[in-house]
Protein: SRPBCC family protein
Organism: Cohnella ginsengisoli
Amino acid sequence: MSKTTIIAEPNKQEVIVHRTFEAPRELVSRMWIDPAFIPEWWGPSVMTTTVDSLEAARGGIWRFISRDPAGNEYAYNGVYHEVTLPERLVHTYEFEGIDAVALVTVTFESLPGGRTKLTETTLYPSIRIRDGALQSGMTEGMLELFDRFAALLASRT
Amino acid sequence: MSKTTIIAEPNKQEVIVHRTFEAPRELVSRMWIDPAFIPEWWGPSVMTTTVDSLEAARGGIWRFISRDPAGNEYAYNGVYHEVTLPERLVHTYEFEGIDAVALVTVTFESLPGGRTKLTETTLYPSIRIRDGALQSGMTEGMLELFDRFAALLASRT
């Protein structure tokens, strides 16, 4: 059962994802950018993800490489514009091979009972590119990613 | 006479600016990110602009401070996602005090006769924020900025 909400309104350039976790935001936000945990939750479980770079500070570069069971590699990268944990992250996002850079904002909001609402907003260069990303299976990948992250958090709390 | 074209379609989150310069793109692109020249063209001439930082490389930070005749200061900053001169720049953009980060892509295209077409696309977090920027006098500021840059280029060619 996934509790992830994905909002992609017609004719807009963004995708907004909400998910509430049963953990305080200090832990949620720290784990979100901890390179040691990325391979355990980032992307679908069928992929093997390695962290090439993750410098979680303004101007820092991140780059992840995912490998599918056939051995094909896919790489993703960006730079951090803002890292103000536990509140907020702003970074660029690029799927290597696709000539399009997106802007991602992640906010962590404390809720009563030690819970945390994560909101991830991804702003695409055009409606067409956003819609292409949505049709590429991104939605299923995101649902699984957030479930994996929630399970990992649950194992640590 | 300004030859700058500013395109801001209704209900979109972006502003696209085109300007053709009478100079080759190696010079145009190099001057565009040269901190020594920024004070001479960046922003309206009534402002005094200083470069606090300009590291033109992936992950590099830029920050400019503009001071109006009354002494009020306005600061702008961002990080570079991509610096592949003479073709392209991708960087974030933030007007300090306004909680909104935009994504800027600048391309330099060679035209016959040693001319260069510059295209700057600024992607805002929302239509509302884009429209607010447009209504704040940004358009006039941009027209002047591109005229100043063209005049500076002309003085160097």
Summary: The interface with chain A takes residues 11-14, 55, 58-61, 78-82, 90, 92, 94, 101-103, 105, 121, 123, 125 of chain B (CB under 8 Å).
